[in-house]
Amino acid sequence: MLQEVDRRMVHLQLGRDVRGVVAVTHRCGCGAPDVIITEPRLPDGAPFPTTYYLTCPVLSAAIGRLEGTGLMRELQELLQDSDLQSAYRAAHERYLADRRLVAQRAGSSVPNAIGSVSAGGMPDRVKCLHALVAQSLACGPGVNPIGDLVLERLGAWWQQVSCAARWMPAQEVPVAEGLPE
Predict the structure, then answer these.
(1) Domain limits, the chain
(2) How does pLDDT run across 152-164, given as a tens digit for each residue?
(3) Rounded to the nearest 5 degrees, what angle is found at the Cα of 109, between the Cα atoms of 103 and 112?
(4) What pLDDT is stored for residue 179 in this prediction?
(5) Is 84 exposed, middle or buried (0-12, 13-18, 19+ CB in 10 A)?
(6) Residue 83: in which H helix or E strand, if any?
(7) pTM of the full structure
(8) Nearest by Cα to 90 from 40, 53, 48, 136
């Protein structure tokens, strides 16, 4: 279950309430959530295909700028390599398995509409770098090779100033145990 301080931060990051969130699966270098995991069915029963959801607006904007450079086309061409293509397919399978596990733990099921669909264009295309990076951050290096390549290009987006300080008024920055101030 999402802690209240994290729910508030994610609400401020996205500008809306979140539904079906299981947990924060990755934190930015500043300590703020940057990836959450969501159930494949929202509380109202609607399918929700994005298991790993990127929440950090600073990271999201940086990825958007990379998408604007034509990087997705370049990464798509890299999928001609059979080893990379095989690893990308494995990332797709991992995404589907993780979604099934989340549903099982929630006492739910994966809706048929999203049962074989993962994210980001996997397993054959590079479509959404945000989704691929979210899986890389949540699962760790080596799980999604395309997400890992994007993270290499991004560098340390959080190093200069706390991401939270960039998008949240100072009086709104929640301080939680274990988070850097």
Answers:
(1) 4-172
(2) 999 887 665 566 6
(3) 125
(4) 35
(5) middle
(6) helix 82-105
(7) 0.89
(8) 136
Dist CA 105 CA 109 (whole Å): 9
Residues in the chain: 181
Q: Please name which of 25, 63, 53 lies closest in space to residue 157, comparing C-alpha atoms.
A: 63
The beta strands (E) that lie in 31-162 are given as: 33-38, 52-54
CA dihedral of residues 84, 89, 90, 92 (deg, nearest 10): 130
DSSP assigned state of 161: S
- CA distance linking residue 115 with residue 40, whole number of Å: 9
Look at strands 52-54 and 33-38 and give their pairing. Answer: antiparallel
Is residue 146 within 8 Å of 126, Cβ to Cβ? yes
Residue 8 CB contacts under 8 Å (≥ 6 apart), including other chains: 174
DSSP 25: E
CA distances from 143 to 6, 23, 90, 95, 171 (A): 25, 19, 8, 10, 38
